[in-house]
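Class prep. Protein, please:
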Amino acid sequence: MRPTSPHASPPRPRAARPHARRALTTLLAAAFLLVGLTPAQGEPVGDAPTADGSSFSSPLPLPLDVLDGTFDASNVGLTTVGGGTGTGPPPYYSNGRWYEFVAPATTSVVITLGSAFDNALEVWTADGRFVGTDDDGAGYPNASLTVGLTAGTAYRFAFAGLASGYTGAGTVTIRPAAVPSAPTDVVVTPGDRQVDVTWTAPQSIVAGWDVYCAASGAAAALCGTTGAASTSTTITGLTNGTAYDLTIVGRNSLGAGQGSTPVSATPRATTDVTLSTVPVSLVSGEPFDVVATFTRSDGVPVTGTATFSIGDATRSVAVEDGTAGIVGLEAPAGTWPVSVNLPAADDRTAAAASGSLVVDRAAQTVTLDPIGSLTYGDVPVTVTGTATSGGALTFTGTGACTVDGTTLTVVAAGDCTVTAAQAGTTEIHPATAVRTVTVAQQPQSISLELPALVYDETAPVVVSSSLDLPVDLTASGACVLTDGDLTATDVGPCTVTATQAGTDDVAAATPVTLTTEVGRRPQVVTLAPIADLLFAVGPVALTASSSLGLPVTLVGEGACVVVDGALRTIASGECTITAEQAGDAHTLPATASTTIRVMGTGTSASLQLDAGLGALAAGASATVRVVGMLPGSELVVTVYSTPRELARVTVGADGTASATVVLPTGLEAGDHRLVAAGVGLDGVAVSAELTFAVDAAGRLVRIGDSALVRAAGLAATGTDGTLPVATLAVVWLLLGAALVAWRRRVA
């Protein structure tokens, strides 16, 4: 009896088992092949997918990196029932745990199951083609099957039980059927103290690779290993300049396979070269050096002979301490090819570099001489400069100036930029020099003259710009400006300011301000002529006027006065008439005068008693009127015997005065005088009187020359030497005639 697992079915008699089943299986397989009943690739399988490898449709990935190893497996808990036909679809056995792998090569492997129960092995392609089965057979209790693989094909196999009751843990072992064949296409690339090796794997199961190196005259020795998945490696630690034969050998669990054909390679240090020039920038006509700097990857100083090619010339130069060069070269401006080559040595590679030498044209410097200050309106100036190359200069001007040849002309105010240029040659760069000078605005000045003005007068302002530009005028104070004419609007300071704002090219002028004093305007007073006058004529109209139509005041002095614009005489003598206009805030005063002669018309008086003869004297009225008296003086009326003043009256402006008096009571019987006394036009006292007589009864018995009866014994009143009334009248008439004659003579 063989051991069983805890879940195994009851043991069966050995005689009932292997040989009959194996024979049946063989017959079935043969039948499939003969009649073509093997399922086609891609035909669906007969179980449902799972996630734990318990079905053909959902296998677990093979837990081996290489088809050469052992891993643990188990079908515990699985209850699938196999079909057992061998024609598909799988499973063939029961309780299978499925695994899948892709064949890495066209070769054969042996799959062996190990367990304590009666295990069974079945193998299919992933697309459902039957490959083979085994239920441990003679190797009881382990199934084993040799499987021929096709590279790139996916295979699935089951760790299963012989029947539905067989489960348990176990192992799966996959071994190659043979040691690896020799790899092919070995390629060795030498490097610095190493070589890179690549190869093509054979159609074999390989667990790893070994590389053997054999130096010249020495036995081969293992110099490198790599995993099965790699077909390349780098062998380090070699000696530069030594030739090595390299052989690649595959190995698996059966041992080392056949080695590849040896390939020879010699490691060499990598040699790099850098080309440079001293100086870095090359200039036509200036010497320079070309330097090649060599370096080895292993740090060993480079030696040998380098060949330089510059343009069409070639020169060989020894390399010392990694450097070689050609000194003291000169080349015209342009681009020249340059290269250097260093042949390979046993222990280093060759080195080469190429490039271009760019030889620039030589530089030159242009100097533009100072230009000096410029002002708009200046006369042209000459510009000068030099170039270090000695070449001729060309001058141009932009902005506020132009340059023709070497003549600079200012055309505006602002920045004037002058450029001096030298065109250069094929070996000399062009060059320029620039100077910018600010052209100042042209200055200007203002001339201003103000007229002398009186109020309400208009006169032109004389103003000009030194550059004949329009000048702006403003006025303030006692004047206004209209179209360049200045009009006085008041009396006092009149201030005028002249400005000229300038232009883009002309500077603003300094403003000019002048002040003139506006005076009062003059006027003329005209007084119409008037002839000499006789005193006591009626008022004489006067005519006077101002040239400005202002009101005129008339004044009379001396023998006359002016009342309400009319001339009245008040005495004899000179009469001065003055017409005055006092002026105002804007006008000067003015006068006109004339003097005439006032001749008196004679002094006369009229004294009259209003009562008739025989009337009572007491209370009788008397009328007194005088002519030719001094105006303003007083006329005094007095009655005499015993003097009594009856009236005092002021003489009027026309030289006349009048009064009505009443004779007093108590007059004595006798002669009496009624006397009117005053001052004549000539200032001499004059008087006139009227005599009368009163009788004892108080009645008027005589008035002047008229009498009732001459009564004896009349009282005498007044002073001695009294003239009769008739005699006094004659005197007054003679005096008046004399005054008239005198006036006519004067006239």
